[in-house]
Amino acid sequence: MTDLTKRFNKQVDKIAVSLIRQFDERVSDIPNILKLTLGEPDFNTPEHVKQAGSQAIEDNFSHYTGMSGLPDIRQAASKFLEEKYQVSYDWQSEVLVTVGATEAISASLLGILEAGDKVLLPSPIYPGYEPIITLAGAEPVYIDTSDNGFVLAPDALEAALNEHGEAVKAVILNYPSNPTGVTYSREEVQALAEVLKKYPVFVISDEIYSELTYDEDHVSIAEYLREQTILINGLSKSHAMTGWRIGFIYAPKELTKEIIKVHQYLVTAAATVSQKAAVRALVEGINDAQVMKKEYQKRRDFVYDKMSSFGFDVAKPSGAFYIFAKIPANCLQDSMEFCVELAQKEALAVIPGIAFGDAGEGYIRISYAASLESLTEAMARMERYVTAK
């Protein structure tokens, strides 16, 4: 019988299912497992948003929309960004509605990359970018930020741009960061923009956690570098709408008209019912994230204090809902071995840092998108494990 797997795109051989998902599935069958693994808000979608979705079903919004999305959601998305982050995009020509931020990332990268291109990524970083870069035949180049509090320094960025030269097609930023929770101040964003404007590179700025910042307001790099930036955002984290699959691409019209070609052939358009619900989230629910943010901040402080007291070195997160902690010296230093043993002995699941690249080895990521009750039990299990070591 013919082995058709040998006829697959050879680039597929170079990618794998995310280690986050692999590990989550690996430990799911452990009895009484307490999982702090996935970046999934434990809140429900706000009631008024759900009602808008239900009404859209009743009103028979069950047909295709245009490729870019419904006019009302694009208008609302443009206004949301301007009110929140002082960045203006024309809703008719510079806003695309996507199937979550994931499709926004894929459409953007596949639209700009060719074989031989290089993409700079500050590391550790969410593992959803590298596979798309690889599928496009391009090469990811990592910049280790672990010695700088997980913040990409302008001089490190410029050094990488100079080292790799014209092969660099794009730089990816993700802030607040998954997995570290670290974000960038206005001064840090401005400094990165000053470097990037000197080079003919795209800046793909994944700002999906922009509504979840704790110490100061989020600053989009598009405020300083609009003409080079492909800005990605969405409602999964801000409005607990992961399953509704609504994301956005904001970019200058010259870029948008090219990216929409890829978007069309990937998905045609985002789900119509989800788009109608999203309008309610963006307009009437413009500040829905505030209630969730207050609760996340309490959880952050609790987990941060506990993990620090157990001997973990933790960069205090200023956004998102993750703790990225360096494993204490008395414990297993291989992050996968640490997490497997923790799950087996204490029925507590967290993500090994290696899932976020080589710079993440020796760390673990904890998602505190869980109830304070669950986090209290998780910290008790973590303390037992570390103390026993």
UniProtKB/TrEMBL annotation:
Single annotated GO MF: transaminase activity
Top-rank taxon: Bacteria
Keyword Plastid: no
CDD domains, sorted: AAT_like
InterPro entries xrefs: Aminotransferase_I/II_large, AspAT/PAT-like, NHTrfase_class1_PyrdxlP-BS, PyrdxlP-dep_Trfase, PyrdxlP-dep_Trfase_major, PyrdxlP-dep_Trfase_small
Aminotransferase class I/classII large domain span: 32-380
Protein name: Aminotransferase
